[in-house]
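=== RUN LOG ===
request id: a7f3
mode: sequence -> structure
chains: 1
length: 100
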Amino acid sequence: MSASAPTERSIGDLVATLLLIGFSVGAAVVLFFVSLVWAIGNHDNTVAIVLGGYLPLALAVIGAVAGIVALSRKHRAFWYPLIALVLSIAAWVVAASIAR
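=== RESULT ===
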């Protein structure tokens, strides 16, 4: 029984990591396109566009790469894309408050 427990945890971590990477990248793309709407306004929203559009994309890529590296080293990997997703949403919320 102890021999099958690490493989189950590894498969669960693999599935969770891949799903979180996909969700993180998808959410970052949506946040990017939503933040492009701020460019239409009359005010200069360059900082808001960078924080709300480009930073979530960069965080998603960093989280995906770190998650894949952690998977290859057989470490707990789902934390990296999860943290990237949370930070992306937080950066977008800050950017939305700047854009208003």
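=== NOTES ===
The mean pLDDT is 87.
The first helix runs from residue 4 to 36.
=== END ===
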